[in-house]
Amino acid sequence: MKIFHDGMPEWNKRNFTVLSAQSLREGWLDKEVSSVLVDLRPEKEAKAGHIKGAVNLNPEAVIAALKPFKEQKPPIVIYDSKGEGSAEKVATALVKAGFPGPRVLSGGFAAWQGAKLAVEAEAPATKIAYVPKPKAGSISVAEFQALAKALPENVLIVDVRGGDEVEKGMIKGARNIPADEVASRLAEIPKEKELVLHCTTGARAEMAYNILKDKGYKARFLDASITVASDGGFQIK
C-alpha cells in the first residue's frame, strides 16, 4: 500500500469530513482533543440539552466567531438538529474562508441522542474559548530546531517523506525511510536511539510515530509544516 503524499491535509483544505456520534465521543471528547465544538441549533433547543463543551452559535455568526483563532487552525466540529444540512453549509463556508477540514456530526444532535450519549442540561457557552494542546508524541518546534542544529549521538532524525521529495534536500544527519515503508524496514531503525520524525506537514510523521510507538520504539514527531532546502537548511511554519 502506498500513502498519497500528505493527502488528508491537502484534501482538508478543500473539503469537510463527517463524524459519527461514537467517533466524536471516543476519538475526540473521551481523549479531550483540543477543539471547537459548535452547536448550530436555536438557543432554546441548545439550552434544553447539548453536547458537553459545545458553544451555541447562529450559523451566520460562526466564521466571525472563529476568525480570531484562524492562525491556530483549531479542529472544528459542527452539528445541527438532525442532519438537515445547515451544518454542511457552515462547514463548506468555513473551508472557503480558509478553515481547513471542519467535521460535521452525521445526523446532528438527534444522532447523538439516538446513540444514548451524555447530554449537558446547563446553558451552553456562547463564546469560543480555544486553548490548543500539543498532540501526544509531538515535539515542540523549538526542541526540534535545537536537535537538528546540534544532533546528539543518541538521537536520530527520520525523514519519512518520499524518495522524490528528499532528493530536493534533507536535514544533515537525517535518515530517509518513507512513511509507507516504516513497518517493513524496522530492522534499519535503531531501538537504542530516540527517534524524531518529520515529513512536510506532520501527517505522515504522526502515522510513522504510531507504528513505531506500537513496536516499542522511543519516538516523537514534528506536528508542523517544514520545508527543507538543498543545503539541509529548513524552515518551519
From TrEMBL:
UniProt cross-references to InterPro entries, sorted A to Z: GlpE_sulfurtransferase (IPR050229), Rhodanese-like_dom (IPR001763), Rhodanese-like_dom_sf (IPR036873)
Task: Tell me where in this chain the Rhodanese domain is found.
Answer: 36-121, 151-237
PROSITE patterns the UniProt entry points to = RHODANESE_3
Give the highest taxon in the source lineage. Answer: Bacteria
Entry-linked SUPFAM superfamilies = Rhodanese/Cell cycle control phosphatase
State the PANTHER family in the record.
FAD-DEPENDENT OXIDOREDUCTASE, PYRIDINE NUCLEOTIDE-DISULPHIDE OXIDOREDUCTASE
Official protein name in the record: Rhodanese domain protein
What is the species of this protein?
Citrifermentans bremense
